[in-house]
Write a structure and sequence with these properties.
The chain is an alpha/beta fold. Helix content is 45%, strand content 13%. It has a 9-stranded parallel sheet.
Length: 269
């Protein structure tokens, strides 16, 4: 990345919009993303708003599973050097088997795990096999997380700390609250000493990302991508090539802006 440039993570649910298109879309992200989050589909995604809920339901109807997700991860990491993180919920991991899952994720080239419904206080069951497998375990903080707990999460998290921008679900409206989100990030920034701080939930544009990254080391976009993919793949007049090109253009604008390099817009915190 260029000097002063912030990291961009992009999220996609495995098996969405179809089993066969997940990998080409992930490869399209490589043109701009610094890392990829691959969602593990689950029937009850607690932290997800409607777009990602729909993508998870659609993926499950398509036949997506933990094994198909790991297979996509393996194919992606065998071709590309971008770090890939799995994001999902603890129940499917427990069903797969904690040790078995972590070994399979490692063998698939996965770099880390984000499990939103696993509190740091109860994370030892996954942290131990993840550490043995060489996987980062990334924890989340929110606007209502007390300062002492944020410091403890920073010590426990590896890879980065994920700052949820709002006390809500993915895709929550950010525009009307962005000043409050900036103040929240400004407040917690000095508390995160061990890890990079990345912000997510509700970021839909380069302007959102640039403003919030004044107080963070990077940003993550999920729902805005899922919604765009829904629109592109519902347009039957477009070829897959045209859809992928449109998506590639969108993620480059998310990272760099419509006309300026990202690094010239974002100042160091």
């Amino acid at each position: 990345m260029a000097r002063n440039e912030r990291a961009m993570g992009l999220f996609l649910t495995s098996g969405f919009p179809t089993l066969d298109t997940t990998l080409p879309i992930l490869e399209t992200f490589c043109g701009a993303a610094d890392f990829i989050e691959l969602g593990m589909p689950f029937s009850d995604p607690l932290a997800e708003g409607p777009p990602i809920q729909r993508s998870s339901a659609r993926a499950l109807r398509n036949g997506a599973s933990m094994r198909s997700t790991l297979d996509i991860a393996r194919k992606f990491t065998s071709r590309h050097s971008r770090p890939l993180v799995l994001m999902g919920y603890i129940n499917p991991i427990l069903r797969f088997g904690l040790e078995t899952f972590c070994k399979a994720a490692r063998d698939a080239g996965v770099s880390g795990l984000i499990v939103p419904d696993l509190p740091p206080d109860e994370a030892l069951i996954l942290a131990e096999p993840a550490t043995r497998a060489g996987l980062d375990l990334i924890f989340l903080v929110a606007p209502n997380t007390p300062g002492l707990r944020i410091e403890a999460i920073d010590q426990q998290s590896t890879g980065f700390v994920y700052a949820v921008s709002v006390t809500g679900v993915t895709g929550s409206r950010l525009a009307c609250r962005i000043g409050g989100v900036e103040e929240y990030l400004r407040r917690i920034r000095p508390l995160i000493q061990r890890n990079p701080l990345l912000v997510g939930f509700g970021i839909k544009s380069h302007a959102d990302a640039a403003r919030l990254c004044l107080h963070a080391d990077g940003f993550i976009v999920g729902s805005a991508l899922v919604e765009r993919i829904e629109r592109l793949w519902s347009n039957r007049l477009l070829t897959d090539g045209a859809r992928l090109q449109s998506l590639a253009d969108f993620v480059k604008i998310l990272k760099h802006g419509p006309s300026s390099p990202f690094g010239t817009v974002v100042a160091s915190p």
